[in-house]
């Protein structure tokens, strides 16, 4: 066993403390033949500090496309020549999607809008949508509506929003290469307001966007500093027409090292497999991740792309003897 | 939606017989079509947790 794995076992597994930036860089530099040992340690950490349950979530795009921001990985930016057209979902369709999500056993349903931040029309649509979902479906409602004002944070909490997603997307040092229309600090500010409001904060990012290993470690360390309840981990799915559309798909060994590193940085967080896992890791990747630190999944489709069949993921959880976290335990 | 032999690629919107669309076919297993295969118009696409719909203003709605 290498020195970093020995230290991680003591510090993270035994003491429940996350690895530092320097230690995470060492983890991300481990050779391929030590990946099984690394994943096993990350799995042991997850089982000890989080337990065997897996949190299942479905997501839906309430407002697709036409976003004024220029996040270089995103097909929904109005600044690129992406084929994604602007679409709004109506409330009956929103409720139907929540019902379909709840039928999988999921405890979370996240409403997402491609915007810089919500305007009055969107807030009104979200308010009506949440009311309709709460009347019809027993599921926690989360939202991801971009950057918020304090008033909007308060309003969303009042509406009964359980969790708010706002990703850092990339390490602070790499952020200007990914987004130029707003700053890392603006994102951080919204995250802090959400966390302090009493809503659960969901905050993660993407890897495989051309960042260095050091910047991957930096993102994990910055997320650990922020302390979100949940960290969604996305792998770049290069989208046609975006500035990152021609980047190569992330190496699968690097992706597995990253999953384990994020778990070793944040031993108690809900670490969710999010977009791009199918492309980066294939069918086997879902199993490897769930046995390497992941304890939450997005089931079914993503916002503009398709995911693995929900039934396949649920069957895998049964096979791995990982029960789905029940709604009552998330409240 | 009206059916017929595809004239355009649903992924990239270019003529179906003008080039090799093998890579597009792989992509279409992981994402809904973005272009109408009859007229190459960009479609309005809504993805939901367990399906998708794609609407061409001229040729109607395609459902997963």
UniProtKB/TrEMBL annotation, chain A:
Organism, as annotated: Nocardioides guangzhouensis
Gene3D superfamilies, A to Z: Aldolase class I
InterPro entries in UniProt: Aldolase_TIM (IPR013785), BATS_dom (IPR010722), Biotin_synth/BioAB (IPR002684), Biotin_synthase (IPR024177), Elp3/MiaA/NifB-like_rSAM (IPR006638), rSAM (IPR007197), rSAM_sf (IPR058240)
Name recorded for this polypeptide: Biotin synthase
Entry's Gene Ontology BP terms: biotin biosynthetic process
Binding site for [2Fe-2S] cluster: 110, 202, 272
GN (gene name): bioB
One annotated GO molecular function: 4 iron, 4 sulfur cluster binding
Radical SAM core domain ranges (all copies): 52-277
TrEMBL record, chain B:
InterPro entries: BsaP_C
Pfam families attached to this UniProt entry: BsaP
Cofactor(s) this protein requires: iron-sulfur cluster
UniProt keyword list: Biotin biosynthesis, Iron, Metal-binding
Sequence ranges assigned to domain Biotin synthase auxiliary protein C-terminal in this UniProt record: 43-64
Domain of life the protein comes from: Bacteria
Family statement: Belongs to the BsaP family.
Function: Required for the activity of the biotin synthase BioB.
Name under which the protein is recorded: Biotin synthase auxiliary protein
Organism: Nocardioides guangzhouensis
Native organism taxonomy: Bacteria, Bacillati, Actinomycetota, Actinomycetes, Propionibacteriales
């Amino acid at each position: 066993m290498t020195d970093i794995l020995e230290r991680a076992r003591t510090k993270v597994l035994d003491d429940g403390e996350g690895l530092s930036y320097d230690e995470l860089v060492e983890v991300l530099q481990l050779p391929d033949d030590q990946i099984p040992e690394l994943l096993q340690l990350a799995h042991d950490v997850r089982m000890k500090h989080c337990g065997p349950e897996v949190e299942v979530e479905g997501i839906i795009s309430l407002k697709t496309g036409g976003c004024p921001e220029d996040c270089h990985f995103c097909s929904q930016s109005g600044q690129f020549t992406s084929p994604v057209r602007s679409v709004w979902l109506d409330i009956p369709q929103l409720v139907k999607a929540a019902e379909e999500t709840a039928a999988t056993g999921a405890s979370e349903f996240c409403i997402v809008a491609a915007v810089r931040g919500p305007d009055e029309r969107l807030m009104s649509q979200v308010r009506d949508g949440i009311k309709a979902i709460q009347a019809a479906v027993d599921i926690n409602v989360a939202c991801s509506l971009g950057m918020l004002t304090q008033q909007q944070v308060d309003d969303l909490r009042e509406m009964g929003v359980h969790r708010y997603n706002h990703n850092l997307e990339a390490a602070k040092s790499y952020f200007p290469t990914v987004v130029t229309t707003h700053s890392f600090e603006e994102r951080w500010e919204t995250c802090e307001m959400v966390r302090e409001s009493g809503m659960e904060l969901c905050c993660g990012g993407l890897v495989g966007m051309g960042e260095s290993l050091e910047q991957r470690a930096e993102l994990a360390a910055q997320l650990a500093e922020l302390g979100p309840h949940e960290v969604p981990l996305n792998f770049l799915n290069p989208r046609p027409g975006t500035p990152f559309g021609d980047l190569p798909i992330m190496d699968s060994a690097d992706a597995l090292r990253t999953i384990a590193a994020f778990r070793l940085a944040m031993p108690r967080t809900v670490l969710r497999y999010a977009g791009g896992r199918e492309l980066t890791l294939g069918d086997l990747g879902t199993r490897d991740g769930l046995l390497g630190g992941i304890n939450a999944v997005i089931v079914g489709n993503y916002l503009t792309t398709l995911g693995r069949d929900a039934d396949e993921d649920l069957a895998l959880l049964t096979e791995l003897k990982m029960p789905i976290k029940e709604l009552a335990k998330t409240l | 939606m009206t059916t017929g032999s595809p004239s355009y690629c649903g992924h990239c919107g270019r003529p179906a017989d003008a080039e090799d669309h093998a890579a597009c076919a792989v992509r279409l297993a992981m994402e809904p079509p973005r272009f109408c295969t009859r007229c190459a118009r960009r479609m309005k696409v809504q993805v939901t947790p367990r399906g998708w719909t794609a609407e061409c203003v001229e040729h109607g709605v395609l459902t997963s």
